[in-house]
Amino acid sequence: MRKWTVLALSSLLAAGAAGCGNSTNEAQSESAPASGSAAASVAASSPEATVDTSKKLTITLLAPSYAGGGWQGDNAVVQKLNEKLNINLQIQWVPIANLAEKETAMAASNSFPDAYFVLQNEFTKWRDKGVFLDVKPYLEQFPNFTKYLSEESLQIENPADHYYGFPYYIQDTRDSLAVRKDWLDKLGLQAPTTIEEFGQVATAFATQDPDGNGKQDTSGFSFGMTNGSFSGLSPILAAFGLGNEWIQSGDELVNYKTQTEQLKPFVSFLRELYASGGLDKDFVTNKNNDHKSKFVASTVGIAEYVPGELFTTSLPNLQQTHPEARIAQVIPPVGPDGKQGTSTLPMTSKIVINNSIDKEKQQRIIQLLDYMLSDEGYDLIKNGVENVHWKSENGTFVKLDAYDVDRPQLLSTWFFRRADPLIQMHKWEDQALLDQLQQWNDNNAKYAWPNPAAEVVSEVQSKLAPNLNEKWMAAVTKIIVGQAPVDDVDQAASDWLKDGGDKITQDINEQYKKLHQ
Amino acid sequence: MNPVWKRSWPIYLMIFPGLLFFIVFRYIPMGGLVLAFKDYDPFSGFSGSPWVGFDHFHRLFTQQDFWIILRNTFVLSGINLFFFFPIPIAMAILLNEVKLPWVRKLVQTTIYIPHFVSWVVVAGITVVLFATQDGGINKLLAEHGRQRMELLTDPSYFQALFLTQNIWKEMGWGTIIFLASLASVDPGLYEAAYVDGAGRWRQLWHITLPSLRTIVVIMFILRLGQIMDVGFEQIFLLQNSLNLSVSDVFDTYVYRNGVQHGEFGFTTAMGLFKSVVGLVLLLTFNRLAKKFGEEGVY
Known about the structure:
The structure holds 2 protein chains of 2 kinds.
Chain A: H1 2-45, E1 57-65, H2 76-85, E2 87-95, H3 96-108, E3 115-118, H4 120-126, H5 144-148, H6 151-155, E4 166-167, E5 176-180, H7 181-187, H8 195-207, E6 219-221, E7 224-226, E8 229-231, H9 234-239, E9 246-249, E10 252-255, H10 260-276, H11 290-296, E11 300-305, H12 307-321, E12 327-330, E13 350-353, H13 359-373, H14 375-383, E14 390-393, E15 396-399, H15 401-406, H16 410-415, H17 431-445, H18 459-480, H19 488-515
Parallel strand pairs in A: 1-2, 1-3, 6-11
Antiparallel strand pairs in A: 3-13, 4-13, 5-11, 5-12, 7-8, 9-10, 14-15
Chain B: H1 3-27, H2 45-48, H3 55-62, H4 64-84, H5 86-97, H6 101-112, H7 119-130, H8 136-143, H9 155-183, H10 187-195, H11 200-225, H12 232-238, H13 244-247, H14 250-259, H15 264-291
């Protein structure tokens, strides 16, 4: 009853806000062409000194947060940005799992912040509704955007002549499976190279007491399940020839949930591992990142990681409680038919600017984002403030303790950054570590496993998929834990198609063809 | 001035803030129900969105998920009604019989502290205790060479888990209202019964229980009005893809489709349906209660 009332109330408020908002929107669109030409004419004269920063403006910004949460209170980086650009920056951090939900509620009440981070689904859903500022006219005046972000990445999900936001750079083959090297050594095993070896190693980790405490309290590997899809399982899916959500089959795109021929050996593999203990018995209750927490807690021996995060955060944490811990990369294991692939991410998230705020503010936000990509600004959001978070000593850089407490890098890792594969590596980092990360990156880059339909957006899909995927996942999970026979994969796939998956597939194929004409 | 009005205006003045609260936060929001008949698009606004008539309801009643969700909701509500509801009453009677005041106070305080623990923490404790690999109970079982139990993922344990959590968290809090009504029983009745030679059981049967009857009936009717609300947080936190078949209820479905995917119209229709069912049940049972000579809620 109360939940319902809240929903109704917020809707009502939305109505009121929308009613008030309309007139300003119209005013905005009328003035838009004028602003474009003004910007262009100014750009012709001198690019740097165009923005008048004499007035102190408050800018609200919404950024996603991950493990550890966002900044609490005033961060030195924010102070520095405020001083530099004469702004009062107010950042709201929203856990990534609730981002879409939060922004949907903001949409319902028409209360978006001045600049914010949006995921693909929301970006495409709202792109043509006039809520995001077209930033293309500003690119000439602010050269850092095209200098440090590729033109292709700016074009993603955008029509040809309007860019309704900046891309959040992501390295496509970033994630990698990591294995406990010290456990392998203790049991006299090698890092697995095939799916079969992967299963053997995982089972050995569960049954042969790799941590030597005399208890059976470890398991081989784990992964998560969020909103009806797997997380941290890509190399295994790829090895069995399954698609990264969609796969080209003849002329058509097919969803991996219906690739029954490939799904059966995949599910059987996980089922055997579950029975042997090689697969974490609690994987069903894992949320997004629980497999990583278990790796850090030393209860799981293999997990998929962002290597930069692993080297700089998780491994040091693991070594605090288990000083003997060492890690090694698992090259994507080779499947039964010789297939290999690594988690491959599309660059589909955007940083957008509110279209209904006044022009002066919009320009100051663009200036802020541009500054964040400049040499000086990027150094600030990546490494922090000199003599607070780091200092230079005889030509080398040294990290200060405040860096770990303040975490000044959050804006660059979670909100906006250059196209920089070594985003998590700071200027004081050991060369050996940089080399190691580069090595992991290079190894992974060979095994890209892209989703052909990553850029395709289908309204049919966003309407039907949540429940369908949840049901499919439930059916497959039942098979993995041994509550249902492997052949039920056929039933799960045909149910998915019958209940609306066929409509999704049809729409995705249509949109895909439109996009690639 | 009307003499009645003159005499009682301070009372009306005192009612006013409460009345205002209900108007602003309970009645005005009901306007939002219009969404159930519209294809709501936040950017077109409340009035700009097109009317769709009963389309949302048609979609709701024709999809097969609906019956599963309805069944799950009723089953979990039923469990609450028949197994959880009597427990605070029993607890209140037991506490009432305790003659040492400090023992009664201590027990009472101890059992209602969990009410102030948030569901997130309760879910955390549940996982720590019941997880298959790392859970305390299963670690104990494994150490004694027993089979591990999949308490969190096996759908057949879900309802028991749901009930246990509820009892642990809300039992103590639920006793408060019954204890209060027991405290108002005239001690003279017990004394008279004692003089007439009634033992503890007779006193319980003829004095304690009858004096609780009215409040029990009222609480029961109020609970019926909320039969479609089974507690979003608790279920959402217990839910996983293996127990979805028994744990998916209206609240979690609305969350997934409405809050996460912005289908405001469809999920408002769902909310309206829930409220109508609750209202019908409340009215029916209130009338029944009156027929049997009870006071009812209004």
